[in-house]
């Protein structure tokens, strides 16, 4: 009897050992809104590059911070090993960080930049995102390429020959740091180039293609002299283009030959496809692949796959990793970068 007991105890220890060794790692990925083309691509890039043995749960918050907070609590209660959060509201990051710290769960914020003081108290938290000032400046540089000399504008777009750039700005979200910085740096950079810039209107479209379509239909009837559409992302740029196509103002072309110059930011697959069709002039790559690889490097460090975060990334204030953008136009050799 004693022998049977010892054998059973031995087998139990063996099973327990292998159970611990083979325990799968569980992470949670929380995205603010399920219809955001860019964020879906970003999440897919993270998922495709997860290390072997790391399983994931992905949830979308339907643009509700209340819903996302409940998702965070549910995942933490399930003893998740790590959280990746694209917050609905950047001001929620403090609460999410406090919740994660209470369970000693590492957290990586993406896309919406937390305020430093809201995350600095917890050692196991990082943010990965774009460099929005760089994106605004690059968008201005792209406009400079097509607008030409500030003293002698490209007549294709200076249709009223007043030597001014008349533009509509489609803004992603009021108060969103990327939207604010992309817009402000774009405008200040264009002024710095010496352009006489007339912003006809700045309209918040919440990053959404359908909202931009509706807004552009209203603005087009209000302003007869729209020459440029500066969009904070590709989806809103495509919404404007959808309207221009509907009224037969835009047609697909082997070269960019449209009467209004529309530019975006993100470099989404659908955005780049629109550039290939000669509809959108260009975009700034908000490099979701490079950002996702930075996320993976931090994740591997937190989960013990590596002893340090890759030296390829510069960490600002011990918390932030920023990835610069790249100009993409129809003639750019990078046009197939996300295809």
Q: Structural class of the helix and strand makeup?
A: alpha/beta
Number of E-state strands: 14
Overall shape: it is: elongated
**Average pLDDT:** 91
Largest beta sheet: strand ordering: 2-1-3-4-5-13
CATH topology of the largest domain: Rossmann fold
CATH superfamily of the largest domain: Response regulator
Brief overview, please?
The protein is α/β, with parallel strands linked by helices.
What does this structure look like?
By secondary structure, the protein is an alpha/beta fold. It has helices at residues 2-21, 37-48, 65-77, 93-102, 116-119, 132-147, 177-193, 209-222, 234-246, 269-276, 288-302, and strands at residues 25-31, 54-60, 82-85, 107-110, 125-130, 148-149, 152-153, 165-171, 197-204, 228-231, 261-263, 282-285, 320-323, 326-329. It folds into two domains: 26-130 and 288-323, Rossmann fold, CATH 3.40.50; 132-286, Rossmann fold. The longest helix has 20 residues, at 2-21. α2 crosses α11 (288-302) and α6 packs parallel to α7. The chain has a six-stranded parallel beta sheet, with helices on both faces.
């Amino acid at each position: 009897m004693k022998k049977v007991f010892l054998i059973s105890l031995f087998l139990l220890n063996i099973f327990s050992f292998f159970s611990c060794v083979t325990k799968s790692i569980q992470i949670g990925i929380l995205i603010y809104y399920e219809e955001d083309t860019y964020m879906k691509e970003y999440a897919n890039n993270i998922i495709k590059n997860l290390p072997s043995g790391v399983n994931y749960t992905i949830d979308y918050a339907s643009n509700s911070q209340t819903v996302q907070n409940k998702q965070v609590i549910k995942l933490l209660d399930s003893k998740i090993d790590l959280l990746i959060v694209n917050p609905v509201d950047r001001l929620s990051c403090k609460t999410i960080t406090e919740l994660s710290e209470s369970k000693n769960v590492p957290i990586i914020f993406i896309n919406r930049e937390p305020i430093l003081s809201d995350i600095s108290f917890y050692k196991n938290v990082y943010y990965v995102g774009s460099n929005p000032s760089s994106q605004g400046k690059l968008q201005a540089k792209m406009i400079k390429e097509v607008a030409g000399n500030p003293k002698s504008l490209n007549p294709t777009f200076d249709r009223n020959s007043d030597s001014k750039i008349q533009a509509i700005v489609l803004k992603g979200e009021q108060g969103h740091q990327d939207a604010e910085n992309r817009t402000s740096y774009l405008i200040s950079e264009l002024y710095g180039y010496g352009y006489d810039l007339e912003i006809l209107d700045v309209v918040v479209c919440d990053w959404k293609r359908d909202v931009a379509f509706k807004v552009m239909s209203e603005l087009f009837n209000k302003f007869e002299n729209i020459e440029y559409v500066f969009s904070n992302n590709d989806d809103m740029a495509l919404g404007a283009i959808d309207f221009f196509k509907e009224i037969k103002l835009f047609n697909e072309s082997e070269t960019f030959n449209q009467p209004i110059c529309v530019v975006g930011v993100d470099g989404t697959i659908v955005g780049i496809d629109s550039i290939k069709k000669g509809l959108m002039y260009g975009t700034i790559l908000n490099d979701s692949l490079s950002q996702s690889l930075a996320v993976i490097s931090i994740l591997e460090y937190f989960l013990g796959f590596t002893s340090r975060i890759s030296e390829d990334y510069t960490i600002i204030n011990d918390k932030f990793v920023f990835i610069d953008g790249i100009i993409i136009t129809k003639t750019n050799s990078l046009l197939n970068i996300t295809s």
